[in-house]
Amino acid sequence: MGARHRKGEPGRDVAVRAVGGHSGDDDPVDIGAVVLVRDLQTSTEDRRPGATMHPSTLLLPMFVAACDLPGGQDEVWAPHCDEIRTPLDAAEVSPLGFSADDLLVGVGTHAEASLVWTDDGATTRLSVDLSPGAEVYFVDLEEAPVPDDADAVLDIAVICDDYLEVAAGLSLSTDDGLLDDDFDAVLTASTVDAAAFSVDAEPADFAHPEIFDPFATGDYDDEGVALYGEVSAGGQTSGSLYFETEGTDGDTAWAASELVAEWGAVE
Asked: Quick one: 67 exposed, middle or buried, by C-beta within 10 A (0-12, 13-18, 19+)?
């Protein structure tokens, strides 16, 4: 599932007041919900098939169900996609017209790009290598029907594009030696010649966790690493590496993302 959103400024948390709902009579409804969008400097054109707000994480759906609306309304429906997952063999052709084996041939198993470290602006060559994993799914997405008892519906566009999901081994290495890491990743693709990948990790999962030290400042409760990228035919790759933190300030929960590195054709 995808949703349309605005891009904020790099390295900032963006608070969004959700006012775009409508009630049964199509009048605008201010649901009074203030939600947090973790700005990961992306656009919907870069989204991973089947993902909501990729790479940004929109926390709106978990909040709106608890909101009290004017006039006694208290059930707000957030449009989303229902997911039907069908396991496939690696050589089995999906309804999209290609198999997992076809995808790895189409995008290739090796790609290179210039990587920039945002802390000091240094550049190095990045190599991305893929290897086939054990699981393959065709994911059929359909827009969920609005329930009859919904008091209001958020005015959010969703894109329910079917995609192929392929487990894969992902290796990242740079000429400067700061990246030399292997991960279990997930490839998602709606065409045979391009795929997105994502990894959720911890700093300790990296051979050189000190690359995150310049961003591990201030007080926070939890930390993590998010990696998003794409590979395409001809050995092309682009992507971003983020250091993420979460914490609380009084009664307010917050989350932040800092861009650690980016490579390839990244806007």
From this structure: middle
Question: Mean pLDDT of all residues in the chain?
Answer: 78
CA count, 13 A, side-chain hemisphere, 211: 29
pLDDT at 157: 83
Q: What are phi and psi of 84, to 5 degrees?
A: -120, 115
Question: What pLDDT, on a 0 to 100 scale, did the predictor assign at position 216?
Answer: 94
Instruction: Please name the amino acid found at residue 97.
Output: G
Exposure string over 243-265, b if 16+ CB within 10 A, otherwise e = bbbeeeeeeeeebbbbbbbbbbe
Quick one: how far is CA 174 from the chain centroid? 23
What is the distance between the alpha carbons of residues 49 and 176, in angstroms, rounded to a whole number? 32
Residue the block writes with tokens 């300790």: 204
Taking a C-beta distance cutoff of 8 angstroms, is the pair 128, 231 a contact? yes
pLDDT average, residue stretch 78-96: 94
Instruction: Check pLDDT > 80 for residue 127.
Output: yes
Looking at residue 143, its amino acid is E
Backbone angles phi, psi at 233, to 5 degrees: -55, 145
Nearest to 243 by CA among 196, 267, 266, 209: 209
